[in-house]
Amino acid sequence: MVKKKAPLRVGETHVQAVRDTFPGAVLDAAWQAEDQVTVTVPKDMLPDVVEFLYYGRGGWLPNMVANDERPINGNYALYYLLSMEEGDPGFVTVRAEVDPQSMEYPSVTPRVPACVWSEREAFDLFGLRAQGLPDERRLVLPDDWPADLYPLRKDSMDYRKRPAPVTDVENYSFLYEGRAEEVTEVPMGPLHITSDEPGHFRLFVEGEEIIDADYRLFYVHRGMEKVAESRLNYDAVTFLADRICGICGNAHSVAYAEAVEHAQGIEVPVRAQYIRAILLEVERLHSHLLNLGLVCHYCGFDTGFQHFFRVREKTMDLAVLLTGARKTYGLNLIGGVRRDILDAQKVATIKYVREIRNEVEALVDMLVSTANFESRTAGVGRLDPAVARDYSPVGPCVRGSGIARDVRFDHPFDGYKYLSGMKARSHDGCDVQSRTLVRVEEFMDSLTMIEQLLDGAPAGPVLTEDWRYTPHKFALGYTEAPRGEDMHWAQVGDNQKCYRWRAKAATYSNWPILRYMFRGNTVADAAIIVGSMDPCYSCTDRVTVVDVKKKTETVLTKDQLEGYCRRRTHSPLSGTGV
Amino acid sequence: MIENDFPASLQWRPDPVALDASVAKAKEKLLQSIKRSVYVYRVDCGGCNGCEIEIFATITAAFDAERFGIKVVPSPRHADVLLYTGAMTRAMREPALRAYQAAPDPKIVISYGACGCTGGIFHDNYCVWGGTDPILPVDVYIPGCPPSPPATIYGFACALGLLDQKLHESRHVAPAGEQAPVAFPAIPYKVRTAFEREARRMSGYYYGKQIVDEFMMALAKDKTDALAAADRLVERETDTRKKAVFMDLKALLLSKVVQE
Amino acid sequence: MLKLFKEIRKAGDATTGYPFEPLDMPAGFRGKPEHNEKLCIACGACAIACPANAITMDLNDDQSYVTWDISYGRCIFCGRCQEVCPLFAIELTTDFELAVLNKADLSESCAYEVARCAVCGKPYAAAKEVDYARRVLKSVGGPAAADVGKLDECLACRRREDARAFQAQARTEGGAR
């Protein structure tokens, strides 16, 4: 009764392991692309199967996608995406259907904390309730959004519907995870004038020491996923994806295009794959220089900050040379890229790369030999590898804690498949310094990669228009943005539009760990810790500090906080207590 | 315009802040002649951060907006100019209003970037109110996605009356009976479009168009022997990539010749 | 510290001369889209492709003109219009000086006369587009040129006519058998 041995498909060992461990749990297993398999399980099995794949089989969880599939099969569906990075690398998606009567499913968060934001979001956008989810606060939608309107349900509303605000005050409740008797009632309500931030932080402190932090983000929720399902055709969404983030938009655009290409089985010309990888690295150049500049700034080394920005302009010029734009490259189409690299551009690029390498080497040398750098960054903002394992953070954040996760090498895509002699960088100091050093090394690697890719790019077309559009197929697209992996899940409908598009930005995976990085540090370090995560920098513009013992609340402006970060004397908190 | 096509019943609209007559007058005076440096407070109302970073680039060494006395300040209390970026999201409406109210009158409001000016690509999404002007009276619009640092400097120079605005509204009516010329009449239409399509596939819309134009120009010039013209073009070209596309087009030409 | 001073000295003055001197934008920079009204046939390809709806096309109230309109305030400078235009009538220039004090100045438009269907009288395309298509079809020759007459009808009428012709053909064929 021995079957003839067919070569195993990517992910098959994981699927088999699930079958063996949970007999009868796998209702269906289907491959969307060479390295992507989706297994459907009963919803009650979700926590067990996801936990097994995550901790038992070396999986990491980029995110979870909820989908309203009632028009297709009568149910809602949840897709827990797992990136398998130990044996048999690939993507295993655990899917479960949720019936529209109960609208409930068992929460996976208590078993795998990395699911927390996705499960909160699934309630905001679809009204799907995770039973046992420890944090049921609103995540994505603004405070003034009506409670019973779920924007992404297929039958809930037009994408242009703008309901009247239900409140004029921000009423989000900030949580303090401490011992019960110490919990301070955090004042809420009309806030203070200095706010210009798309994120609002609360630090819980004892004196100068941060003991916890919480934050309200998504001030910039614009409803992109809905507009991609309605106004835009699926091939125009690459331009929308470019505008998810102004720093790493190209990474999103590529990730979206690849999701559709994987789902539709489109072979992207090899030259286009090279060009995509080159542009992703160009994007990393300017992004990492931005961060290195900010590290200088936070260390009180403003001369260095200006110099990093001076050199950064060269990377922007390089982007203009290759794409015609400084930031939003807009060069991806489904099936390839829109602009070739001719010899003239290639030569000019290599010249830029050499110049930039020399200049940045000198600047980094300067930064590292600055006395402040070591003292301000070593041991600060510690990200425990164990916490990292639980929350699946990405990018230099996790690589600074000794875990070399990098999509470019874990799941090589595009031009990265053809690189030689490169590997994921990591440092194990778990602190701001490690994260900075990872960025420095990656920056230099990027320059080398650009040279290699320019050199190796084969002849041939940059675009294909040769495919058949099949409705309702879905797949994942992934890229390594400067801040970590971007993971897009896309399914096209029967009307040349996305049926469901879920874009996961790198920082989405990193926010949940920030509170752990804060703990035990002083208020003076807060800005540099946030900076080392490299979120969109304006997020730290205002911080509310709550002293849990004194029960006072102080609002610091970004400048006060940054100034304190640089000086470390004259605490802005002194004198504000009772 | 699509903006006016919104089904009004679906959309609640915020009331924009109205300008007091005396403030409006003072503001007009200020806009005409600011003979001093200006302090800028920027408010991110839901942008992608592209604009913020271009502002950053504008105030750092390479473009150094402080040359003109333009300084970014950390509080609206100190600001002469409020710079609003991003599509106005629902969550940022109140904070945006608070920043506006906190700045002393008369103040100049600048909408920055496509999203700030009109809502940009997000203009009709459910979670935004459009650009800045559904909420606040805007004095200067700086378009761009994002505006580059020189565009930012130009915008400020316009706002401060240092440079004149170049762009003006234009409403034209095409004359009746106007004919659009057919390009490259010497080359059969179907052949030309096949060339254009192939060049775009090989080299993208931008370089592809340049290359195919050069190719067709050479063909159109030599009416006797098109293949020889193509050969000469390939021969002369030093850019290896362009050469490859020329050769590809030549192969296409050959196949067309054989067909006919 | 000495290293720092050296680096500063080496960098020199890094600041651009703009706006006191003109700025050279590299070719291929995606700035203001320039619409060539003479070349444009108002086919609407750009309006369909524009991801931000910066380009729109609308009929006026009495349906005599179709107006091509661009809002530079909404434009995201992606160049899709340039890519899809069959006549290359729109092109992104390197012009970046677009700031205005008055929102209306961000808008440019051009109205094109509408052609009406020879059968039902409804407006169906810009007259200029119909004219262009007629000349192209004639130049192509062959079976396509035989259809030139159908250009004067709207899509709905043409379909109806085709269906009728097909029916008639089927009937005669059926009779012959």
TrEMBL record, chain A:
GO molecular function, one term: NADH dehydrogenase (ubiquinone) activity
Annotated binding of Fe cation, by residue: C248, C539
Domain NADH:ubiquinone oxidoreductase 30kDa subunit: 39-156
Residues the record lists as binding Ni(2+): C245, C248, C536
Gene3D superfamilies: Cytochrome-c3 Hydrogenase, chain B, NADH:ubiquinone oxidoreductase, 30kDa subunit
UniProt: Mg(2+) binding residues: E225
Domain NADH-quinone oxidoreductase subunit D: 300-472, 475-542
A Pfam family: Complex1_49kDa
InterPro entries attached to this UniProt entry: ComplexI_49kDa-like, NADH_Q_OxRdtase_suD, NADH_quin_OxRdtase_su_C/D-like, NADH_UbQ_OxRdtase_30kDa_su, NADH_UbQ_OxRdtase_49kDa_CS, Ni-dep_hyd_lsu, NiFe-Hase_large
PROSITE patterns reported for this sequence: COMPLEX1_49K
UniProt KW keywords: 4Fe-4S, Iron, Iron-sulfur, Magnesium, Metal-binding, NAD, Nickel, Oxidoreductase
Cofactor(s) the record lists: Ni(2+); Fe cation; [4Fe-4S] cluster
SUPFAM superfamilies according to UniProt: HydB/Nqo4-like, Nqo5-like
PANTHER family referenced in this protein's UniProt entry, alphabetically: FORMATE HYDROGENLYASE SUBUNIT 5-RELATED, HYDROGENASE-4 COMPONENT G
Family: Belongs to the complex I 49 kDa subunit family.
Protein name stated in the entry: Hydrogenase large subunit
Naturally occurring in which organism (per UniProt): Adlercreutzia muris
Classification lineage: Bacteria, Bacillati, Actinomycetota, Coriobacteriia, Eggerthellales
Automatic annotation (TrEMBL), chain B:
Database matches in Gene3D superfamilies: 3.40.50.12280
Protein name as catalogued: NADH-quinone oxidoreductase subunit B family protein
Pfam families cross-referenced by the UniProt entry: Oxidored_q6
Alphabetic keyword roster: 4Fe-4S, Iron, Iron-sulfur, Metal-binding
Lineage of producing organism: Bacteria, Bacillati, Actinomycetota, Coriobacteriia, Eggerthellales
Stretches assigned to the NADH:ubiquinone oxidoreductase-like 20kDa subunit domain: 48-156
Iron keyword on record: yes
Signal peptide: none
Superkingdom field: Bacteria
TrEMBL record, chain C:
InterPro entries linked to this entry: 4Fe4S_Fe-S-bd, 4Fe4S_Fe_S_CS, NADH_quinone_OxRdtase_chainI
Repeat listed as a keyword: yes
Location of the 4Fe-4S ferredoxin-type domain: 31-60, 66-95
This protein's UniProt keywords: 4Fe-4S, Iron, Iron-sulfur, Metal-binding, Repeat
A Pfam family hit: Fer4_7
GO cellular component entries: membrane
Alphabetized Gene3D superfamilies for the sequence: 3.30.70.3270
One of the GO BP terms on file: aerobic respiration
GO MF entries: 4 iron, 4 sulfur cluster binding; metal ion binding; NADH dehydrogenase activity
Cross-referenced NCBIfam families: PRK12387.1
PANTHER family, alphabetized: FORMATE HYDROGENLYASE SUBUNIT 6-RELATED (PTHR10849:SF35), NADH DEHYDROGENASE UBIQUINONE IRON-SULFUR PROTEIN 8, MITOCHONDRIAL (PTHR10849)
Protein name (record): 4Fe-4S dicluster domain-containing protein
Species per Swiss-Prot/TrEMBL record: Adlercreutzia mucosicola
